[in-house]
Every structure is written in C-alpha cells, then in structure tokens.
Amino acid sequence: MNAEFPDPRHNPDLLAHHAAEQVLLDAWNSGRLPHAWLIGGIPGIGKATLAFRFARFVLANGIEQTGGLFGDPPPAESLYVAPTHPVFTRIASNGHADLLTIERPFDDKKGRLKTDIPVDQVRRIAPFLHLTAAEGGWRVVIVDGADRLNTSGQNAILKILEEPPARTVLLVVTENPGGLLPTIRSRCRKLLLPPLPEDVVSDLLGRHHPDLPDADRAALARLAEGSIGRALDLASAGGLTLYRDLMGLLGTLPKLDLVAAHGLGDKLARKGSDTAYYAVTDLLVWWLARFARSLAREALPPEVVPGEAALMSRLAGDRGLDRWVEVWEKVNRLFARAESANLDRKQVILNALQTVEAAASA
Description:
By secondary structure, this protein is α/β, with parallel strands linked by helices. It is 52% helix and 8% strand. The protein contains 16 helices and 7 strands. The strands form 2 sheets. Strands 2-5-6-1-7 form a 5-stranded parallel sheet. A two-stranded antiparallel sheet has the order 3-4. The protein is elongated.
C-alpha cells in the first residue's frame, strides 16, 4: 500500500462506489444479509476500504438490528461511521474484539509484505467466529488479499463457508477472483468494484500532491487506469517523468538509440533506485499491453503524453497483433525471471528494450 494513502482501517471516505455500498445496505436492511461477500477489482480502487467501512457499520449497528422497546430501527441510508465513533476508533487501533483481519504479514528482513498469507492465520477464523460476540452483536472477518492464499488456506476458508455461524459475516477481498477455488466463489455474494473514473483519481491526486500541475494529474490518472493506489505510487516514484523518458526512447524505434538505452539502464541499476526500476518495468509492460489492446480493437487509445499515438501508429504498420502479444509475454517473463534470479538490472532493461526493437524492425 502507498504510504501516502490512508490505511483502510483509518479511512472514513469511500469515493465512486455508491452502487456497491447500496448493494450492501439493501442486503442489511432486508434482514437477510449473506454470510460471505467476495469484494473484487483491480488493485488500489478501495476494495479494502469498502470492507472496513462495512465492518464498522455492522459492528456499530448490529445490536440495534434486532429491535427493542420501540420496534425495529429505521432502514440505514449509509455505511458511514464517524471517525469519532467508539467502533471506528477501536478498529483503527486494531482493538475491536469482534473483528478479525487476515492479511499478508510484513517481512522484516526484506522490508515488504510477504508473498502469501500463511495458512496458520486462516485457521484462526473458525474459532473466532464460534465465540460469542464480545459486544452482543455480530462478528466480522476480513480476508484482505485472498488470492494470496495457498490451496490449504483456501480449503480452510471453504470449510467456514460450508457452515457459517449465525450473525457472522466474512468479507473476502481479492484483486483476482479467478485465483480462488470455484467453490469459494460460488458460496460468496459477489461485489465487483469497477475502476475509478479518471476525474476522481485526478482529484484524489490533487489532495495528496497539491503542487502537481493539472496536466500532470490528468496524465497520471490516465496511466493509473482507475487505480488511485497506482497513481500515488507513480507520483511518488516520479513515474510521469520516467514514462516520458521511456516514450522518448521508444520513439527512436525502429532503430533504438543505444546511448540513451544504456543511460536509462545505468540510472535504474544504481544503488537506491529500486522504486524507479520497478516503475519503469511496470510502465513498459503496461504500455505493451495497452498497445496490443489497441491493435486488437483497431483503435488508438487516448494519449498519456504527446506523440504516443504517432508512435503506436508507426510501430503497428503491417506487423500483426500476435507479434506484439508475443513481445509483451517475453518482456513479462524476462522481468519475472530477473526478480527471482536477481539478474543485473541494466542488462535486464537493455534486453527488454532490444526485444521491442527486434519486433519493431522485423
């Protein structure tokens, strides 16, 4: 997660997902809330924010749902819980006894989140859900990054879904619903969040980077393709400048400017340049995928930077879609192999650019 963006535990705001919020509200107000929800969508659009928003709502309103001396409470109109509410503050401090969060642990040695969620964490869910609610209402579990569960972990989730205890809700958050067992998907109510509109991403960028020119915010929003998380990551990494450099270099094709290519490789191989290196590899893969999609649709996408459409038109020529899909696959595999085998970064960048050059000059 980008350090600039509020942790979902602390974030009271949810933007542009009003339809999803209404689905949850309608289910709650009906009195027949499904026990399990699958919240899916691309990274960085607010999936976990929605999950925590709903968890706060359920835990703040669950006791009242059964009615009382004056009958049932009126239907809820929003999932919003004020940051000053005791439920909000306890969840923000990881101190609410009726909420369990399962997520990838932090790897202190590598300074980043671990790749997978250990199955031991998932096995905490069943005993937690069978406890009596500490505050007399509901118990809620959020599994954030469920596609990072191995088969054992997913099977543990499945057992819980087969016999869920009363007044419990499981929120399964994933950026890759297809990576979950079909039986898990079939037992969850699906709630797939769309990418955020470009103007929403641009406005959010302005909140966190008020000095960014409007044109740069718009370009970053287009690069992010609806993900505010990705937009903030790119802004922090100087992603727009790197993208312009990359487009300038690709603009020399079909004969790659080797001096400029070596210069970029040297820059990305320096000590302390991890963020820039990962940004460039991500942007090159993204651009190749975008180019291939434009060939498939026979329509050029909106430009991120000036000259991009002309570059795509020139490279398209009479070279088929299959050729550029193959380039995308090769570059993707190269970057994955470089990460696992710790290959020399300058050489990796040069190899990737030369792969593109070979296709452009064929």
